[in-house]
Amino acid sequence: MEGSEGRESFCPPVAVAPPVIALDAEPERVDQPKRTVMSRPGNGTSGRGITLLANHLKVSVKCPDEIFYQYSVSITCDEKRDVNIKRIGRKIIDKIHETYSSEFAGKKFVYDGEKSLYTVGPLPRNKVEFTVVVEESSAKHASESPSDNGSNNHSSKRSKRSLHSKAFRVEINFAAKIPLKSISLALQGADAENVQDALRVLDIILRQQAANRGCLLVRQSFFHDDSRNFTDVGGGVMGCKGLHSSFRPTLDGLTLNMDVSTTMILSPGPVIDFLLANQNVKEPRYIDWARAKRMLKNLRVKAKHSNKEFKIIGLSERPCNQQLFSMKVKNGDGLDNGGETIEITVYEYFTKHRNIELSNSAYMPCLDVGKPKRPNYLPLELCYLVSLQRYTKVLSSVQRASLVEKSRQKPRERIKVITDAVRDYSYDDDPLLATCGVSIEKQLIQINGRVLEAPKLKAGNGEEVVPRNGRWNFNNKHLLTPARIERWAVVNFSARCDTSHLSRELISCGRTKGIHFERPHTLIEEDPQNRRAGPVIRVEKMFEEIIARLPGPPDFLLCVLPERKNSEIYGPWKKKSLTDLGIVTQCISPLKINDQYLTNVLLKINAKLGGTNSLLAMEHASHLPHIQETPTMILGMDVSHGSPGQSDIPSIAAVVGSLYWPLISKYRAVVRSQSPKLEIIESLYKPLPNGDDEGIMGELLLDFYRTCNGHKPAQIIVFRDGVSESQFSQVLNLELDQMIKAYKHLGEGDIPKFTLIVAQKNHHTKLFQASAPENVPPGTVVDTNIVHPRNNDFFMCAHAGMIGTTRPAHYHVLLDEIGFSPDVLQNLIHSLSYVYQRSTTATSIVAPVRYAHLAAQQFAQFVKFEDLSETSSGHGSVKSIGSTSVTELPRLHMNVSDSMFFC
User: Fold this and answer.
1) Are 198 and 290 found together in one domain?
2) What is the pLDDT of residue 794?
3) Residues 177 and 312 in one domain
């Protein structure tokens, strides 16, 4: 479907295909107006009313005419220019605060800890320069002591240490005025300048309050050093509960959005205990010290014997009882600068000269807390990890499951945590906020919501399925269009699974759902000798066995993996089956085989093989408002990024498009790799030198035309996931422009009408029932009170929150050329949460977005390999984007290109 042949098939059947429009035939006008986010056209009215609480607190501003003055802060020193404030440490910041107070007679200010300072009203001068001198103590000679020998009576020892001063030059320059009135204008619906800057200053004030209390700050969340907030998730890692706060402009005025937040920290306490937990070993002799060195580097520890804090730079090369350093002695037993120099071990120094008993450090390395050329060794058992140190590595599946289990909060519990925090921490008790007349109410805001009626579904044999509380089942019901499975096989990478029993139960369950299942052609167990090989080799060996045993390509392969999640076999298996051989597969790792588990597996298998599990009743009857009469294409778009710290891992852009209009339940995915951490999709339109377009959008447009009896989409509804408000303009202009160019490239003149919606789950608004302890019912929608004062947005809880507190989806309608009424659009979005073929529950966000997210995640498994070309096909290649090399993803095999493989 690529190239010129595909473009011809998109056009109406004629004797000669019309020529493709040249790329430069219609030059873009320089003065083409930029699209802006649409205003709210009104509010919905459908559904039954419900009274809710939201985790927003009303904020009043009595002095709206005040002005914040922003000053840029530059700090330099002789050793390094443009010093990173965060690396200098709290001591420098305190010195700067002291200097501000004396220089400006105690004038109140807020400092963001990096490059900006804010005051209410101007400082006496627009530019100020001064020097901050910081004195640091250090060993007189690098070899003099293995440690910072501080103690409670070390006045004499201080004399043997030198003080070296480091001067930091501070320059403060006026940068901008930020009127608080911009918030008032935004609340009135005006597109006010500086509103985000003013809100940011208010947020910084709360952050500085938290910093002064010794909290760990992570973006707009802060975490107190309170063990009651810590929960152990294993591996020496803890979940730390804190609070998120952000000022938000809403229809009801300015509010403070407060929510419970969680970050990961290292377990504070003895370093040796942390290492044992981190490496899951019982005794120090089993510790992998190379791995320990990587883990400990740059962590902060406190020495038990001196109560001083240090940063770890590495480990000693030798054990504590062998690591030597030079020490000057007098008469062989006393410290004296004029004495002779002897070689002594760190262990002997602490046990004999410091009289500190070391019970288990002798045979372990020491911590090096000095500098690269001036080591300073401390025995491991004397060191404790300082609290509130972030853990930013990827959690294991076990840790993630533990975190989810232990951090759940029921609605009433979450409400109590928030209201207690507001009462106890007195957020509006701040001099700067008082100057502006800002006060914060102590109770959650009460709002009005509506509960939409769940759509009915159609199953097989004309039966109707009525969801209850966002859930339904196929008990005693057939799937709408069940697949026929004749030639298939089971492959088993897991030694603990009985594949014979599994296949019998799967066939039995499938037949009750209407799926025609023959017995598997063969059951293939992995050769035990292959289990020690790498994952790619294991997969290659298994496929060699499959080809040898089967008379031809199978309809389907059931693959049993040894681990439920993050199996190293999954990526190579999917790549081989989907891109090299074109075989539909389903991976499982069952812990318990029962009807519910098998039904969920069968839903995925049926959808992948072209069957349909269920449809919306109104979709089945072609009664979809705005859609049944006009060819309409629905897109879901998402970008998946590498884990934090993996800056060289390509991002994966996935777009799914609807097929078989007027249906809205069938989708196909197109996936591309792009520059790491890039959120805006760059390959929606990708013209080649030969005139072809190999972009995502063109491929999906051709699929729509092919499956919709030659119809071209006159309307396109786009659901975009994963972008923040600051990126709305890029989605609305850059991405939408690419989609339009792709459509024009196919030789079409009339551009479809677009409705562009951003779907967010990564936000902090929660909804609660005002008069019941349970989560809000599925179908709850809010488009008043806490929504944006101007933009067209709303919150929706389409799913049933069975555990913890429900997080609503936040939908932002950026553009609506189709002209949906609020009720029609909200009901369409609600209905799209019931068409996800993988489950029998309403999803928390529309199915197209869920599919795009899943497709991006699955293809991200392919780029986990260090070298894609190590597989037999060698499909992986590298493209260069700017200065960054990006691994190109292999394309799906033609046999499965139309499959809903991501199911």
Assistant:
1) no
2) 97
3) no
